[in-house]
Amino acid sequence: MSPRADPPAPSDPKTFEPPPNRPPLEIIEGGAHWILEAYNTGRRDGETYSVHDTQMDALRAGKRRMDERGHPCLLRWDSDESVRTMYWNPDFEHLDVRYDSLTKTWVILPRAGDVPFYATDDQELAARYGREVQQAYDFKHLDLYDPDGTKRRTIDHRFVRNEIDSSGVRFDRDRIVEDETGPLADEQSDGAVASGTTPASALAAAVPDLTDVEVVPTEGPLRRYRAGWEDGGDAAIVALDPELCDDRDIVDAFLDVVDNWKTISDNSHVATVYDDGIGPSPWIAFDAGEAPLRKKIDDFGLRTRVDVIDDIASAYETAMLYDVPLRGAEPDNVQVRAVSTGWSGALTDWGLTNQVYRALGETSVGHYTAPEELDGGRTDRTPMYRLGALAYYAITRRPPFEGASALPEAIRSGPPKPPRSVVDVPDRLNEVVSRAMATDPGKRYAQIKDFRDELAEAIGW
Fold first, then answer.
1. What is the pLDDT of residues 105-119, one digit of tens each?
2. What is the widest separation between alpha-carbon atoms in the chain?
3. Residue 9 pLDDT level (bands cut at 50, 70, 90)
């Protein structure tokens, strides 16, 4: 097993004597014996501490070693593919980032201890190093507080986020060791990216699960990347422009969407969130999918295109169950992947882009903007309009108001010309899309289920 590296020491925060840095423990079955060893994803090649004839003896030894030697947690493998139970050391339950009004500094402090890891007068740096300490020492929860003592956010350990004790998620525990010339040393004390580094390298340094980070050219307040993820899949990453991190309203808008997105991320028609964080600027990493809808739509027949819209509507219904705002229904946010029954659609973004623009005081008008949004308004049927506009695109392969000389005026006087006038589709689809995109919100479908039912009837399911 590779040695565990201490978290990178910052140049300006005051560093205190760190506690011993020990790995999680795991109990695995080896032939007729139970082996207590250093966690190494169940590969049975970690440092062995003891061997026992029964699982209970191994558990007792593991619990004793965890308490006496300060290991963060103990995992009991049920098979080579999944963990049956996980026990957490109470000393590693919570790591706090708090403001100490007496010393006027931010401290990264275990809730069960008295000695902080770091102290700094910069809140963003404190949050960043708190995340690094959490990852290096395996704290179950990282709790971030405001200066007045209000808990702002909790970031869970990867074991917790990925439900390792039920899904068998594995992690490579090898640590990235940065020397004084590494990316973290190139960061300025205010958290901005220094000359000599790139946003992509700073992100890669802050998120060890990413590999081969590539910049996706884009404009605006958000930066986008593609990268490999730890399980061999592809991740899409969206990060807030670091220059906007001093504006609390913008940061809160970003984090609020991320928190909502994570709430429903388990739904098969919502892009799976892999991880999220706040350094070097707020970011979210999620399943990139197989391809964006825009790239595959010309390969799909009408039935498949409508199937994808039904998937997105299904994601909206799930979001409603969890009181998650219904946002993001635009072609750029729909990813598709091949499944046994054909193709499946999943929604990304969840309004992240639009919400950040709103926090900036800007209104982003596109082909999927509802008429009431032009004046800054929104009703409970605004999502239905956007869903109908997305359906229009899927059915016709064209934006609803393609060719309009003045898009806002076209939206106000809509709906657009019927799909039947663009492509050869059943007349009933005209009625469904026109009702969903009615200029008067009161004339739209009140329930997503009604939209889905009539869409299915129109296509002849």
1. 999 999 988 788 888
2. 79
3. very low
75 found inside a domain = yes
Which pLDDT tens digit goes with each residue over 281-330? 889 999 988 888 999 999 999 999 999 999 999 999 988 888 888 888 88
Spatial CA neighbour of 87 closest among 77, 74, 76: 74
Yes or no: say if 436 and 445 are a contact pair by the CB < 8 Å rule: yes
What pLDDT, on the 0 to 100 scale, is given for residue 206?
A: 66
How many domains does the chain divide into?
A: 2
Structure confidence at residue 41 as a pLDDT band (50, 70, 90)? low
Average per-residue pLDDT for the chain? 81
Tens of pLDDT along 352-389? 988 999 899 887 788 999 999 888 888 999 999 999 99
Torsion of CA 325, 326, 330, 335, to 10 degrees: 90
d(CA 34, CA 59): 9
> In sequence order, which residues have a C-beta less than 8 Å from that of residue 149 and are 6 or more positions away?
98, 99
The DSSP line for 24-43 is -EEEEEETTEEEEEE-STT-
Distance CA 332, CA 353 (A): 11
How confident is the model at residue 322, as a pLDDT?
Answer: 84
Summarised one tens digit per residue, pLDDT across range 81-110 is 667 778 899 999 999 999 988 888 999 999
Q: 334: which 2 tokens? A: 């729909």
Task: Note whether residue 102 is domain-resident.
Answer: no
How far is the C-alpha of 359 from the C-alpha of 250, rounded, in Å? 5
Q: How many CB atoms lie within 10 A of CB 457?
A: 12
Q: What is the CATH number of the domain that holds 351?
A: 1.10.510.10
Question: In angstroms, what is the C-alpha Rg of the chain?
Answer: 25
389 phi/psi in degrees, rounded to 5: -65, -35
Rounded percentage of the chain residues whose pLDDT exceeds 90: 34
Does the residue 138 lie in any domain?
A: no
For 374-423, give the DSSP string: GGT---TTHHHHHHHHHHHHHHHSS-TTTT-SSHHHHHHT-PPSPGGGTS
Angle 435-438-439 from CA coordinates, rounded to 5°: 175
And the tokens for 9? 């020491």
Q: Which amino acid, 57?
A: D
CB atoms under 10 Å from CB of 416, counted, come to 23
Segments forming the whole domain that contains residue 375 = 292-459
Residue at 305 is within a domain: yes
Final residue before a domain boundary, out of 51, 71, 90: 90
Domain boundary among 56, 90, 124: 90
